[in-house]
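Two records follow; treat each independently.
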Amino acid sequence: MNITSYNEKTRYLMPLGMAILKGGYYIASADEYLYKFLDMNSDRTFTELIHPDDRQLFLDAAAKVEEQGQYILVRFMTIEKNYKYMLLRLRPDKFVVDGFRCIEVYVSDIISAMEKHMINRVNLTKYRRVMCLAEYL
């Protein structure tokens, strides 16, 4: 599967964000990174933020989260209402609200994270070369 077709640039990059979902998969709480990434879309249910073709994958993973944490790759809505592939890590949260065990979800823009990592790696290599030359000056 080639995921680069869903890698449009967005106004805000989010290498990693986190949310706690309550019943109906509404966002009960999230970190600043995810709220900035979602912007006006943050009032939607989490399932509405996932591409229609990937929703069942999310629902299946959410149903199994009590047994074991789940990792899934889904297309996730951006500020611009486009979709980007995101890696989701689901695990049960300690809170139970109205009989529903909340779900902790980590959302990672894996392509942006990889690109940022590569830039940092190049910078580190340049720095190491300069430091090696310092002893010869």
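The next record belongs to a different protein.
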Amino acid sequence: MNPTLLTIGAIIGAAGIAWALHLKRLKDHVGMTRDEFLAQFQATGIAAAIAAAVYDQFQKLGTWKEFMPSPGDSLEKTYKTVDEDVEENLNEILQRLRFEMPHSGDLQEWDERLETLSDVVRWVDWVRTKQNPSVNAQ
């Protein structure tokens, strides 16, 4: 047998097992309905449109329609998103809300690490404050 083929097979097998474990973890995940998620952030004064955009973005990462995100979900552990993936998700959320990404100087003002969905909601709300005054979340 060719050692290269065995190595490739082992890598594919390991990736398959890792994906299956990730899907099982998502299947066992306990989340919130969209309304519960929105209500939790509205109680703190964050616009429903912001919480909804975050919920919808991460709900589709759950790989099945019934997946329900939760504010405490870890970006890395629950969604397997790191660095570029997080940035891509943030850009999609901002586009949905018609917000512009703040300039790098403004971004440096945010000194908290984005680790959970709650952090993302609070960050997007902070981005709202950096928008042109004519831009508002509905």
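Discussion point: The chain is about 55% helix and 0% strand. How would you locate this feature using only the token line?
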